[in-house]
Amino acid sequence: MDCALSQGVNFLDTAELYPVPPTKENNARTERIIGNWMQARGNRSQVIIATKVAGAMPGMDRSYIVANRADPPLDFETAPQPNLTREQILTACDASLRRLQTTYIDLYQIHWPARYAPLFGGRQYHPDRERDAPSIEEQVAAMGELIQAGKVKYWGLSNETTFGVCQFCETAKRLGVPLPVSIQNDFSPMLRAFEGDLAEACAPSNYNIGLLAYGVLAGGALSGKYLNGFDTSRSRHTLFPGFQPRYHAKRTSDAARELVEIAKAKDMSAATLCQAWAASRWYMGSVIIGATTLEQVQENIAACLTKLDEETVAAMDALFLKYGNTTLAD
């Protein structure tokens, strides 16, 4: 974080869920790390802090998220599951403020929809999976309360669909709540689902919502490091092989091989190529980068400052047409 801030990176994205993959033992640790860092450096005014509130995830026990909102934590065995009710949103925000050691959050995001929607690699909508959930009106009103209280400056969405964006924005207009300013969705050179009707809804002439892209390297897969000859002993998909399986598809590996060749022809790494391409999109608010070494931080920052020529952009488009959205599952 010191290195990134010294080079102009001032937007830090986290969540009450993080780090991932989450466990009872590590849950909410990322917010605490950032809070301790800001406290030690005295640099709160220099950074933009974004965090997220977690909702229900059917089939998964995430009661520890709710338990960890209290200080001291509640009993994990009796704590309820997270859900995006007004009460839980307000309580989660207070917990994030405490862990981040700040009086306000710059950007507070709904981590994923409370309602059923195709998420995390899903591409088909299944009506039989619909479920009861807190209303969009209740969620928007809670965000409005937090803004009125001065605890949140702006709010945003994450892992949302075009339908969801439109519903949230129209509800906010009706309730007199400021519109969401951002949407944090999975996006990469090989996952460009955002570029159609979702980009239209988020365009400056419509709801004016910027994309915060995560997964630009498909969890590292598009960097080419999981191909032969690279040491991945400390990499995410090696340490956590069951995490984010959508990034493990054979088509993603095949695309990565060709991305590496396109990058070599331009004397850059595949990671630089992917991030530079993402940063150049007209709808991009910010490219969210992840790093476990200082070298990766340096490469990621340099990548977002790299300009691609028309030939390279055309090669990226052709590769996408060949492989399609490689990290979509069903």
TrEMBL record:
Top-rank taxon, per record: Eukaryota
SUPFAM superfamilies: NAD(P)-linked oxidoreductase (SSF51430)
Signal peptide stretch: none
One Pfam short name: Aldo_ket_red
Domain NADP-dependent oxidoreductase span(s) in chain numbering: 2-319
Name this polypeptide is given: NADP-dependent oxidoreductase domain-containing protein
Species of origin: Tetradesmus obliquus
